[in-house]
């Protein structure tokens, strides 16, 4: 295969990350503050998304329940993408649109956070989860791309929108991953201060 095509992937990804840093630093900082405040108050973070975003949801929850870069007590985060019995029962008995919202209704409480991932901003089941979260007086952090789609229009002033300025799904997902790592690091620093290597 032509290595130039491979190099173009790396260059495009790197350039978008640099471009996104300026645009996203402020909303990522707001998301960190919101999540740290919720965790400090004994609340939890629920996370959802489809496909690659489902993998990102599980990645984020694993970093909080386990650890990111330093030893600490487990933090309560739950990926709504992992229980196949719930997912298949709800999809079969109700609709695929309800697979996350039913879980938000079951597990979400006022003061909790929903981290909602959708590269298009138009995932119907993620939108339904946001609706359920807002009804339960939860705050929402939405990670999107492609202009934010319908999700961008659903959020309130109390929520945070991290919208990657790109249209290519793979590139959006790559920035979402860096964003997840920024949030995990920010939570650790808020908990313990300083740098992991200090």
TrEMBL record:
Binds 1 zinc ion per subunit. PROSITE patterns: SIS (PS51464). It is found in: Cytoplasm. Its cofactor is Zn(2+). Its main location: cytoplasm. Its EC number is 5.3.1.28. The reaction produces a racemic mixture of D-glycero-alpha-D-manno-heptose 7-phosphate and D-glycero-beta-D-manno-heptose 7-phosphate. Belongs to the SIS family. GmhA subfamily. HAMAP family: GmhA. This is Phosphoheptose isomerase. It comes from Rugamonas brunnea. The lineage of its organism: Bacteria, Pseudomonadati, Pseudomonadota, Betaproteobacteria, Burkholderiales.
